[in-house]
Write a structure and sequence with these properties.
- By secondary structure, the chain is mainly alpha-helical.
- Helices cover about 65% and strands about 0% of the residues.
- It has helices at about 10-15, 30-55, 60-75, 85-105, 125-140, 145-155, 160-170, 175-190.
- Helix 2 packs across helix 4, helix 5 (about 125-140) packs across helix 8 (about 175-190) and helix 7 crosses helix 8 (about 175-190).
- The longest helix is centred in the N-terminal third of the chain and has 24 residues, at about 30-55.
Length: about 190
């Protein structure tokens, strides 16, 4: 006859108890890495939901949760914490405060169009400088190897995506990425000279 099983409520409560060094988990032999892993599995989903409700951005919520656990992992005090959940909550709140400060200090993007035309008109000097820059750009593009120039122009001038270019030229998407990257590097060097 087998021993009676623990009630589900008792097992659920055992999973929620604070993790500390004096209470090693039988599954992992009490290693700090395994305790950190368990803390992540238990707390990350809760923190993501909490942050997602406040930020209305799953991506930002995921980033903040990752940052919080990275800070916890880098903290020298984490091994001696009796309630790492509380410490983690404090880290998340601090990260949220830091993020809101950065966002409030950010200059808003303002598109330049007829409605938002600059207060001062371009001068003749600006027009000459722009013409010179365009000529240097054309020269840099013309100096590219033929295949790199072809891929670059299909992407930038014709507006084709990497997949479309790869299909049209019979090359891999990775090769298209390489040609575009090479073109940008070489053009950038030529324009800086």
């Amino acid at each position: 006859m087998s021993a009676p099983r623990a009630a589900p409520a008792a097992r659920g409560n055992a999973m929620r108890r604070p993790i500390d060094d004096a209470d090693p988990s039988p599954r992992d032999g009490g290693t700090g890495e395994a305790r950190f892993d368990m803390l992540y599995r238990e707390q990350a989903p809760r923190l993501r939901r909490w942050l997602d409700a406040r930020l209305r951005s799953t991506e930002d919520a995921n980033d903040l949760v990752q940052d919080a656990f990275a800070r916890l992992l880098g903290s020298g005090a984490r091994e001696g914490l009796r309630q790492p959940e509380a410490f983690l909550n404090r880290i998340v709140r601090n990260l949220l405060i830091d993020r809101s400060r950065r966002v409030s200090n950010r200059t808003p993007h303002m598109p330049i169009d007829e409605a938002n035309e600059p207060a001062t008109r371009a001068t003749q000097e600006d027009a000459i400088e722009l013409a010179q820059m365009r000529e240097r750009f054309r020269t840099a593009v013309d100096a590219l190897p033929p295949r790199t120039r072809q891929v670059f122009l299909l992407h930038r001038t014709d507006g084709l995506g990497y997949k479309d270019i790869a299909t049209q030229l019979g090359i891999s998407i990775r090769t298209v990425e390489w040609h575009v990257g090479e073109a940008l590097v070489k053009i950038g060097k030529d324009l800086r000279q």
